[in-house]
Amino acid sequence: MTAAQRSTRSAAVIGAGQTGVTAALGLLDAGFDVTLYSDRDQRALRDDVPATGTALEFGETQQAETALGLDTYTARAPRHTGLSVRIAGPEREELIAFDGHFDGYVGVAVDTRLKADERLTAFQERGGRFVVDQVTPESLDTIAGAADLTLVATGRGGLSQLFAVDESRSPYAAPQRSLLTVTVTGLGHDPGVFAHRSRAGGAHSGFSIFADQGEGWWGPYLHKDAGPSWASLGWARPGSDWEKRFAAADSADTALRIVRELYRDYIDWDLPEVLAAQVIAEDPHSWLKGAVRPVVRAGSGRTAGGHVVASLGDTAAAHDPIAGQGAQSGLIQAQRLVAAAAVHDGPFDQDWIDRRYQEFLAARGDAANRVTRLFLGDPELAEIGNQLFAAAAVDGRVASALVGLLHRPQPLLGIDSVETAGRFITEVTGEDASALLARFAPAGRFDRSAFADHLATA
User: What distance in Å separates the CA atoms of residue 213 and residue 345, rounded to the nearest whole number?
Assistant: First the structure.
């Protein structure tokens, strides 16, 4: 007997991306009769759209997937064991270099199309219903009226407008970065790749920050067709030279060419690896450009007929991907909702949905929002960021604690001043923060890559 045949409660999930299908499969396994809605069929979801970012996940998110009985991909994807950071000033002065190691967990970046496809297959095999249809605010009213619990995991078709913006948690009126990403092959993940950054080489992500331009990131990735690969992701500040360059991308080939030219002109310490990269010819959608306004919405909304629905994933909170919190938050929120729904005996009314959402914000959402603002260089957090990044350049323990905030951002909620940042540094190192920071000196010149013989073609 399937889960759908056993159930006395029904759920509808709108949106078959990574978060939506994860929640649908979790609810199905918890005994719900679940219907999952998408405006694309399964093949199109896998092959006709780009991946929604790199979806790099850390330990807490993998724990959430494990709690749902799902594959975390740590046995299949190339692993991230740390983050290697370089920071340059507005005159391109090379200021800060550090290498932070992940403590007790690894990161994995998995093509969201692959993950959603495999979970959608499992969902249907176990008795879940998959409906291909464009859900509108009008049709959502009918769907929500027939289901005990309705989760909205897509904002398409005006569905996000059902959930009011939480202005107190949404300080930005516009996107803070323009984005350009491309997935590539041509590089392995051994210590000889990016060896100039750290001894871990290809097991660490590489992150470069330019005060007036934006940020560039390279990291190990699992592509749906090519398998172990690399992802490049760039963030351009509004009005910057980088933003103008990103706007010209119209294919994987042009995206990679733009990335190569950008690294040649700005980030030459990593250039040989970038020149070795090759586009994934079998996937014309292996690139993406766009912009995300970071915004937090309400946990519940109502349809025209008054039926309550819950926001999930990017519909609840759209994070700039600079700190990797979108994938983390959506999957953790899904797991928490499934766990709570599985043991709830009463109606899934607005009070129940709002309580669950507030619990999620307290446990993860608010901290994810704050760490994203830290890595965006938010002016309100600038002094705190300067102190933490400088300390990371002096002491590897601070470096690991700082990159560890991507895995577990909650400690950042307690850092609201230079003084509390200093206490955090002292707690991590056992040394007075002022004495530690007094040893900081600008890097002067970063180590340059000698990978293969690509410098000759630069």
Answer: 53
